[in-house]
């Protein structure tokens, strides 16, 4: 069932997909093509939710976490390029979609499908608020490594002074918000960052380091939005 390029999904089609997926456990030899088709539907629904903000705050966070875990599984088994391409297609479809009652039903059904898909692929379940806090810590660590360690040592890879000031301001706001919410987790994360900063040298400023810095900026943007600090 190739629905990745179709949007908006009908609630009937999505309900049928959920029923089919939840009735069969994922196995080691399950077709990656079939799983990829399910992901296209989930990604479409996620970007619709991200655009229209249709779910309550807790459900939105849970869906975001489910998508993150599915993304990690697919990147490992299908490759990062597949995930990026599917996300780009889904985002383009969501940009053309309208926010209405049908979209609200799709967002709710997407959460059900993403939950079932993640459980079958990874065996993991969402536990609020711990799962989301750990997700934020992963994103914070990624952004801190890129910004406070790599970009600081590599002269920001030629980034303009004004843009760098903006990045530092955004990072400081995210850091303060997370520290107020999870002081012990942030203490542990910052100890890790400090250790990495002591080891990173200017000679390490290569293409791979720049790629990690770009990933850090992406993670920072997501954190800003999730924490209610605004997107980039």
Write up this protein.
- The structure is a single chain.
- The chain is mainly alpha-helical.
- The chain has two domains: 11-122, no CATH class; 130-226.
- It has helices spanning 11-22, 32-52, 57-77, 80-96, 101-122, 130-153, 161-181, 183-199, 207-226.
- Helix 2 runs antiparallel to helix 3 (57-77), helix 6 (130-153) runs antiparallel to helix 7 and helix 7 (161-181) crosses helix 8.
- Mean pLDDT is 87; it is low at 1-13 and 15-20.
Features of the shown structure:
232 residues, 2 domains, single chain, mainly alpha
In short:
By secondary structure, the protein is mostly helical. It has nine helices and no strands. The protein folds into two domains: 11-122, no CATH class; 130-226.
Number of strands: 0
The secondary-structure element order is HHHHHHHHH
**What ranges have pLDDT less than 50 throughout 5 or more consecutive residues?**
1-13, 15-20
Shape: globular
- Report the average pLDDT across residues: 87
Number of H/I helices = 9
Strand portion: under 5%
Helix amount, in percent?
over 70%
Radius of gyration: 19 Å
CA distance, first residue to last residue = 35 Å
Strand-pairing-aware structural class: mainly alpha
Q: How many domain units?
A: 2
For the sheet with most strands, the description reads:
none
Structural topology:
Elements: H1 11-22, H2 32-52, H3 57-77, H4 80-96, H5 101-122, H6 130-153, H7 161-181, H8 183-199, H9 207-226
Helix pairs in contact: 1-5, 2-3, 2-4, 2-5, 3-4, 3-5, 6-7, 6-8, 6-9, 7-8, 7-9
């Amino acid at each position: 069932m190739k629905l990745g390029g179709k949007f908006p999904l009908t609630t009937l089609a999505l309900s049928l997909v959920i029923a089919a997926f939840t009735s069969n456990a994922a196995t080691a030899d399950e077709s990656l093509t079939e799983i990829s088709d399910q992901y296209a539907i989930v990604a479409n629904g996620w970007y619709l939710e991200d655009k229209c903000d249709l779910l309550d705050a807790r459900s939105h966070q849970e869906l975001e976490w489910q998508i993150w875990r599915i993304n990690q599984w697919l990147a490992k088994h299908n490759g990062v390029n597949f995930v990026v391409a599917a996300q780009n297609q889904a985002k383009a479809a969501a940009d053309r979609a309208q926010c209405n009652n049908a979209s609200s039903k799709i967002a709710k059904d997407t959460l059900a499908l993403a939950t079932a898909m993640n459980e079958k692929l990874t065996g993991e379940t969402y536990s609020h608020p711990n799962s989301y806090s750990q997700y934020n810590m992963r994103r914070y660590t990624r952004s801190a490594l890129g910004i406070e360690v790599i970009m600081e040592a590599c002269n920001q890879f030629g980034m303009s002074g004004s843009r760098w000031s903006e990045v530092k301001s955004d990072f400081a706001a995210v850091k303060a918000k997370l520290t107020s919410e999870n002081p012990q987790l942030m203490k542990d994360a910052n100890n890790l960052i400090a250790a990495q900063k002591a080891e990173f040298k200017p000679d390490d400023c290569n293409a791979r380091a720049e790629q990690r810095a770009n990933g850090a900026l992406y993670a920072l943007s997501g954190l800003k939005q999730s924490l209610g600090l605004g997107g980039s």
